[in-house]
Amino acid sequence: MDHLLEMRNLSIDLYKGKKTPAVKLVEGIDLTLEKRQNFGVVGESGCGKSITCSSIMGLLSFPLSVGAGSSIRFQREDGSVSELTSLPKAEMRKIRGKEISMIFQEPMTALDPMYTIEEQIQETLRFHTDMNRAQMHDAALEMLNRVKIPRAAEILKDYPHHLSGGMLQRVMIAIALINNPRLLIADEPTTALDVTIQAQILDLMNDLRESYDTSVIMITHDLGVIAETCEQVAVFYAGQVVEQTDVNTLFHAPAHPYTEGLLRSVTSLSGAQKELYTIRGTVPTAGNFSSGCRFADRCTHCTEQCRKSIPPLSEIEPGHLCRCFLHSKKETEGQA
Amino acid sequence: MSEILLDVKHLKTYFPIKGGVIRKTVGYVRAVEDVSLTIHEKETFSLVGESGCGKSTTGRTILRLIEPTEGEIYFEGENLCSLDAEAMRQKRRDMQLVFQDPYSSLNPRMTVRKLLEEPLITHFKLSQDELNERVLWISGAVGISPEQLDRYPHQFSGGQRQRIAIARALITRPRFVVADEPVSALDVSIQAQVLNLLMSLQEELGLSYLFISHDLNVVRHISNRVGVMYLGRIVETGDTEEVYTHPLHPYTQALLSAIPRRDPSEPKTRIHLQGDVPSPANPPSGCPFHNRCPQCMGICKETMPQAKDMGGGHLVSCHLFD
Questions:
Q1: Which residues of chain B does A223 touch, with a Cβ-Cβ cutoff of 8 Å?
Q2: Which of A24, A134, A327, B168 has a Cα-to-Cα distance from A201 of 20 to 30 A?
Q3: Which residue in chain A has the smallest CA separation from B277?
C-alpha cells in the first residue's frame, strides 16, 4: 500500500433499540490519505465529519458502531498494513497516541484538572516508551519549548486551570506530537479560541507539521481554517462526501451546489452587496434523509432525477470528485 | 446625520473580588473601563473584540441588567442611571436584548405562542385578540408560520430558535436592540439567513442595534460604525469601512490580520501578537495593550493614551498618534 490511510465504504450505525433498524449517520465514505498530506474535512454541525475521524482512532462507543463492510487500512511504522476496524483492543492501544494522535476541540475539558501538565505529557511517554524519569522530564520540557510555551520549566508544574485556552491547546499539541505520530487528527482545534490566538495556533501547527513529517487531518467548519492549512479537502454534507479536490480548485472552481453556496455565503460577507447569499432551508437530520440527493430540497438546480436517485461520487476532472447529477450529465453529453 | 438615540459617557463596570473569611473585597475585575459611545437612530454600532474584553458586559450595563459602577447612559435624552426599578422596567419596552445561545435562552416548557406573548403581558394591557394579532404580525415578520406557534422550542432548529428569540425581542416594538453574539452559535449557511433577517427588520421597524460579536467578517457586513474593544476599553472607533480599510491602532491591525484568509492563493501578511490578553483584575500600567504591542514605546508603559480624532469621527487611543 502506497497510501498512509485508506478508508473504503465506511458507514457508521446509530443503534436505536432492538426493534428499530440502525440509522446510518454516515455512508459510503471513501478517503485516501497520502504521507505528509494535509487533509481538510469541512462541513456543518451534524454532517458526520467528527465521527468519521473518531472511527479511525477506534473511539466510537455504544450506541455508535462502524457498519458492516467498512474498511480503514493504515500503514504502520514497520511497513505492515493494519485493518483498523477489526484490530484487537490491545493492538489499537499501541497505535493510539503513538502512530495516530488526536487534538480535541476544547482544550479546557480535554485535559485532566487533577494532574499537572508534566504528568499528562508523560502519561503517553510512559505507555509507549521505556524512558526513565529524567529522560521523560527532558522530553516533556523540550516538547513544550517546541510548541513555543514560555517559561516551560515552570509551566510543567502547573495544573490546567492555571493556563489560558491558547496555552492549553499548545499543551494538547505537545502531548499529541511527543511520540512523533504518522497521523495527527485535529478536531476543530481552534474553534474555542479567539482569532489572534487561532492565528498563533494555526501557524504553529503549520511549522510543526513540516518539521515532524506528520500527516494531518483537519476537521473544521471554518473554510478560512481550510484555506490556511490544507492541501486536499473533502466537503461533508448530511453524512456523505459531496465534493473532494485540492484546496485551490475548491475555492476557485467549486463544483457541487452546496460547496458553492457555502463559499458564497462566506465571501458575500466581505462583499459590497447588502443582501447576504443564503442557502435556503436547513440541514436534514440523520434518519430523515430523502431517497434522492440529500441536498435536493435546498438546491437551486434541483431536477426530477435528483429526487429519485442518489447521485454517485464521480470524478469530473482528474482528482476532482463531486456528487452531483449536474456534472455527471455534462460528462455524458461530452462523450456523446 | 440622524439624531442621537443612545449616548454613553465614561461607563465603568467593576465586579468586586471577595476573599478571606469575612468575604472582604480584595480587588476589582475592571470589566468595562471608561467606555463612551453614541448610537444614532436607525444605525448599527458594533462592539468587536476577543473573549473577556468586556463587550457583553458593556451591552448588559447599558440595559442596566448589570448596574454600572460609574458613568452616565442617556437614552432619548434621559439618564437611565437615575431611574428607579419600575421606571427602568417600563423603559425596557423600548430597549431589548437578543442573546447568543438560542438553546438556553428560551423556556423549554412554554410554547412559541406563550413565549411571544410574555413580553406583551409584562409591558402592555392588551386583550386576547390584540395579543393574537401582535403575535401573528411578529411571527410573520421573522418567518415563523402560524401553525408552528403551538410547538415547543425543542422542535425547532437553532436558526429557527434564534428567529423566535428575535421575535420575542421585537414584539414590544423597541427602538433599540442589543444583539449579543446573535449568530455565533449558528452554522454558516444559517448565519446568513439570520443576518439578512436582522437587517430587513431594521429597515422595516426603524431599529438601532448595538451588535456585539467576535466575528470580524459579520461585523463588517452588518454595521455602520464599529468600536474595537481591548481589556474593557474602546481602543478605536469609526465608520466600519474606514476602520477596516485603514486600521490605525496596532491592536486593530493585528486583529484584522488574524482573520483566516478566504482564498488560499492570497499572500499572508500576518502581524503576530505575543502572549495572551492580560487579566482585567490586574491590567498593565499605562496603555493596556503595551505588553503585546509590536510598536510599544517608553511612554506607553506609563500613561494611558487619550482618544484622538483622526478626522471623520475616527477615534483612536494610541500614543503613536500624539
A1: 188, 262
A2: A134
A3: A164
- Contact by Cβ (8 Å): B168, B83: no
- d(C-alpha B110, C-alpha B165), whole Å: 13
Q: Where are chain A's structural domains? A: 5-230, 255-335
Residue range A51-71, pLDDT digits in tens:
999 999 988 888 899 988 999
Q: Copy the grid coordinates of residue B132.
A: 393574537
Bridge partners (DSSP) listed for residue A100: A96, A183
Tens-digit pLDDT profile for residues B263-306:
777 766 778 787 778 888 888 888 999 988 988 888 999 999 99
Q: What is the pLDDT of residue A334?
A: 47
**Cβ count near A154 (within 10 Å):** 11
Sign of CA dihedral B161, B165, B171, B176: negative
Any B CB within 8 A of A196 CB = yes
Task: Identify the closest residue of chain A to B186 by CA–CA distance.
Answer: A45
Distance CA A10, CA A50 (A): 13
**Contact check, Cβ <8 Å, B265/A248:** yes
Contacts of A194 in chain B (CB under 8 A): 50-51, 214, 277
Q: Kindly list the residues from chain B whose CB atom is less than 8 angstroms away from the CB atom of residue A167.
A: 276
Q: What is the pTM of this model?
A: 0.84
Tell me: ipTM over 0.90.
no
Q: What is the 3-state secondary structure (H, E, C) of chain A?
A: CCCCEEEEEEEEEECCCCCCCCEEEEEEEEEEECCCCEEEEECCCCCCHHHHHHHHCCCCCCCEEECCCCEEEEECCCCCEEEHHHCCHHHHHHHECCCEEEECCCHHHHCCCCCCHHHHHHHHHHHHCCCCHHHHHHHHHHHHHHCCCCCHHHHCCCCHHHCCHHHHHHHHHHHHHCCCCCEEEEECCCCCCCHHHHHHHHHHHHHHHHHHCCEEEEEECCHHHHHHHCCEEEEEECCEEEEEEEHHHHHHCCCCHHHHHHHHHHHCCCCCCCCCCCCCCCCCCCCCCCCCCCCHHHCCCCCHHHHHCCCCCEEEECCEEECCHHHHHHHHHHHC
Assigned C-alpha cell, A256: 457541487
pLDDT higher for A46 or A333? A46
Q: Contacts of residue A265 in chain B, CB cutoff 8 Å?
A: 188-189, 191-192
Element (H, E) at B165: helix B158-170
Question: Which CATH code is given to the segment(s) A5-230?
Answer: 3.40.50.300
- Alpha-carbon torsion (A226, A227, A229, A230), positive or negative: positive
Contact call for B159 and A282, based on CB within 8 A: yes
Enumerate domains of chain B plus CATH numbers: 4-94+172-321 (3.40.50.300)
Strand partners, B73: B8
Summarised one tens digit per residue, pLDDT across range A290-315 is: 888 999 888 888 888 888 888 989 89
Gap from B255 CA to chain A (nearest CA, Å) = 6
Residue A336 has pLDDT above 60, yes or no: no
Kindly report whether the peptide bond that precedes residue B102 is cis, defined as omega within 30 degrees of 0: no
Q: Is the pLDDT of residue A184 over 70?
A: yes
Cβ–Cβ below 8 Å for B272 and A203: yes
Q: Which amino acid is residue B5, in one-letter code?
A: L
- Average model confidence (pLDDT) for chain B? 90
What's CA A203's distance to the chain center, in Å?
18
Q: Which residues contact A84 (CB under 8 A, 6 or more apart)?
A: A56, A58, A72, A73, A74, A92, A95
